[in-house]
Amino acid sequence: MLVSVAAARTKWCPMARADEAGRSSGVNRALNGAPLDRSMCLGTGCMLWIEHDYDHGYCGFTRIPGVA
């Protein structure tokens, strides 16, 4: 799915890990299940981001958009 960089940054990244007080390192969700701010998509700042045009792209961790 092609998304804008701004929209991508509102999505949770399954590869992200962050430290949270009182928990072991390497978590990507808060105790209540909400995504941590530090585990959101970086968009163009991520090595997995595949740019489609200037303002749109997709996560390289997923399949190519439009290909079954």
Descriptive labels:
68 residues; 1 helix; 13% strand; elongated
What does it look like?
With 68 residues, the chain is mainly beta. It is 6% helix and 13% strand. The chain has 1 helix and 3 strands. A 3-stranded antiparallel sheet has the order 1-3-2. Strand 2 and strand 3 form a beta hairpin. The radius of gyration is 13 Å and the shape is elongated. The protein starts with a strand and ends in a 9-residue tail after the last strand. The model has no long low-confidence stretch (mean pLDDT 80).
Could you give the topology of this structure?
Elements: E1 3-4, H1 5-8, E2 49-51, E3 56-59
Antiparallel strand pairs: 1-3, 2-3
- Main beta sheet: strand number and arrangement? 3 strands, antiparallel
Order of helices and strands: EHEE
Shape: elongated
Distance between the termini: 12 Å
How many strand elements? 3
Radius of gyration equals 13 Å
Widest sheet, order of strands: 1-3-2
Regions with little confidence, pLDDT below 50 for 5+ residues? none
Number of helices in the DSSP assignment: 1
Beta percentage is 5-15%
Helix share, percent = under 10%
Mean pLDDT: 80
The chain-level structural class is mainly beta
Task: Give a short summary of the structure.
By secondary structure, this protein is mostly beta strands. The chain has one helix spanning 5-8; strands at residues 3-4, 49-51, 56-59.
